[in-house]
Write a structure and sequence with these properties.
By secondary structure, the protein is an alpha+beta fold. The chain contains two helices and two strands; from the N terminus they run αββα. The protein is globular, with a radius of gyration of 13 Å.
């Protein structure tokens, strides 16, 4: 049986006037996000937003809950 993933607060970000968000440096380092990387934006019930590196998106789609 697969263990249920639990969320964790890793920092905060501010949305700029142009809608841009800066991901905190320690989070970028933790997940290996580099300038120019493409991130997939996903929406969860309850107005939650998630970012998934495009290179990991197929793995995310194949996970079972």
């Amino acid at each position: 049986m697969q263990e249920q993933a639990r969320g964790e607060v890793l920092g905060s970000a501010v949305v700029g006037e142009r809608g841009q968000v800066v991901i905190p440096a320690d989070v970028r380092k933790m997940f290996g996000v580099k300038p120019g990387d493409r991130l997939i934006v996903v929406a969860y019930p309850g107005k939650k937003i998630g970012l998934i590196p495009a290179t990991n998106f197929n793995k995310f789609l194949n996970q079972t809950t």
